[in-house]
Amino acid sequence: MIKRMNKVTSLLVAAAAVASIVPATAVSAADYKKTETKEGTIYSAVAYKDGKVYVDGNVKDGENDGAYYLSAGKYNDLSDIDSGATTEMFGDKYLNVDNGDYYMDLSTGKVEADDIEENSIDDVALALRKAIKNNADDRYSNHDVLHDDTNISEITVGPKFATTWYATTYTSKDTGSALNIYTDVKGNYIDADYNVGKIKVTIGQTTTAQSVTVENTKDAKDFKNNNGSAKVSIANAEIIAQDKNNIYRKTTYTVENAVTPITKINGVAVTGSAFTVETSGTGNKVNFTAIQKISKSQASDTVDGAKYAASVTNYVLADENGAKIDLLADAKFSAFGTKLVSYAVADEKVTAQTIDFKTTSGFNYIDPQDESTDEVATAFDVDANGNLWRLESGYIYKFDNNEDWVKTYKVDGSMDSINVYDDNNLVAWSKDNGNDDQVYTIVSGKDTTDTTTDTTNTDTTTDTTTTVKAGWNKNADGTWSFINNDQSKATGWVKDGATWYFLNNSGIMQTGWVKDGATWYYLNNSGAMQTGWVKDGSVWYYLNNSGAMQTGWFKDTDGNWYFLQDNGAMAANTTVGGYKLGANGAWIR
């Protein structure tokens, strides 16, 4: 079996170009493509980009079983690989054949005898030792240890054929506990147990309330008037997803103040069911579970010489009021920047659920959509972009990352297996149809034939869809839309490169202020989501790293305090809560 067949990703389809005009004919979600059925036997197959495919079966001459590499429409014999060999995906382009006997480069078809996987572990060990030894001797007691393949492991959740990241641990010099380290093969690592995101801890009630913000596990923040110190610890960290830029973990947070009881976390009362309060003496501990979105980029600073994540955002497994929300049982996850898609497959059925990340008044939480439950999946796969696919009764469906499955391809009804790289590169075949008439189809960008519209329950088709270039397209009225590879218009948030854009329900790119749920965002004239300070008219606003409009007290990177009103407008030349604010909005100390 293909070990990484169900791996997930957070990347949306990248824009191919900013080019052509959207035609007058609308692209309907009901449109699908009919594929060409070919006779032949496939036992297993792995689709790759640019129409390149690994095939184990009888597809070349109709007589002999074998392993083949399909490229540019030509089947090339892989003489070193026997039919029936086990294969597992590894890294950004390799197949591990028969537990490391060979590695096949899917980008070239070259078969190598070197153990690529073991060599990668060795490279990681050497790169980490070089990066950590003597640089982080105040952080780790074993900073000079050279790890090996017994304690360096591949992070196996995430998209197919993505740059491989690895996990290991080093020992804390302060506590003796194991600290989680995540790294690429070049040793660009992050200490994942230091930065925990912003945790605003409040004690007291309205008139006596005090708040401090804790951002890491090493430091404690003091309340005024000897009311104790807030500190944060984490435990039970479980990696559930990754994409190109982030690692996602489900983690238990413990926030503690030994002197005075904690009343709120990030502005939400700890009376909500998502929080567990442990009383001890005059203080307490508050426990909650959150999804951490951890940047793979290193912060510019270090902690005792060790590199840590540039940013971490924590999303409590709760609604905006702090009521607990449970995730789908036994689920796996795909990451898409502002959301996760959870899914569970059992007994040829799949249940999928989209989980949106939301922020309201500084509280980060999750907003699950309705489940798409018990959809028949004769075959199921997750592509290199993290999208879910299923095969049922002669149709291949793609999940829209919201609530619906979109009929994308029509194939022969006997087919019962699929392998998908992306919308334009996939293989479907009849692995066991009970007779000798086995068939298959390979979609490799230009291999699809009839474009059809599903208007009846028969196979009658009508060629009504005009193909539009995937990516940004300018409409006749001057507005812009983003066309997915399946020819549907994107709606909601779309990430192009490092920039986020928002498209309304009609697929039109928005500019200016946009409200998504209860949160406001600001998009410039080019549609790009803004972060940091933004001046709209004569008023200044601040958008956090997620683009959400900030309200209340806020401390910028220069250490200055500002107050942003409920509508986000920065207060200036006034006094708020006894604190005087200057003409530039900064608190005058």
Description of the molecule:
- The protein has 4 domains: 126 residues, no CATH class; 206 residues, no CATH class; 84 residues, no CATH class; 111 residues, Cholin Binding (left handed beta-beta-3-solenoid, Ribbon), CATH 2.10.270.10.
- Helices cover 3% and strands 47% of the residues.
- It is built from 1 helix and 52 strands.
- The strands form 15 sheets. The chain has a 6-stranded mixed beta sheet with strand order 33-34-35-36-2-40, with no helix packed on it. Strands 18, 19, 20, 23, 24 and 27 form a 6-stranded antiparallel beta sheet that branches. Strands 28, 29, 30, 31 and 32 form a 5-stranded antiparallel beta sheet that branches.
- The protein is globular, with a radius of gyration of 27 Å.
- The N terminus is likely disordered.
- It is an enzyme of class 3 (hydrolase).
- GO terms for molecular function: N-acetylmuramoyl-L-alanine amidase activity.
- It holds the Pfam family Choline_bind_3.
Quick synopsis:
By secondary structure, the chain is an all-beta fold. It holds the Pfam family Choline_bind_3.
Topology of helices and strands:
Elements (H helix, E strand, L loop, with lengths): L17 E4 L9 E4 L3 E2 L1 E7 L5 E6 L7 E6 L2 E4 L9 E4 L3 E4 L4 E4 L5 E2 L3 H17 L20 E2 L10 E7 L6 E7 L4 E3 L3 E9 L6 E7 L4 E2 L6 E14 L3 E12 L4 E4 L2 E2 L6 E5 L2 E13 L2 E6 L2 E4 L2 E5 L15 E4 L3 E8 L2 E12 L2 E6 L3 E5 L2 E4 L5 E5 L2 E5 L5 E6 L6 E6 L2 E5 L9 E6 L6 E3 L17 E4 L5 E4 L8 E5 L2 E5 L8 E5 L2 E5 L8 E5 L2 E5 L8 E4 L5 E4 L9 E3 L2 E3 L8
Parallel strand pairs: 1-41, 2-36
Antiparallel strand pairs: 2-40, 3-39, 4-5, 5-6, 6-7, 8-9, 9-10, 10-11, 12-13, 13-14, 14-15, 16-17, 16-21, 18-19, 19-20, 20-24, 21-22, 23-24, 24-27, 25-26, 28-29, 29-30, 30-31, 30-32, 33-34, 34-35, 35-36, 37-38, 38-39, 41-42, 43-44, 45-46, 47-48, 49-50, 51-52
Pfam family, one: Choline_bind_3
Enzyme class: hydrolase
GO molecular function: N-acetylmuramoyl-L-alanine amidase activity
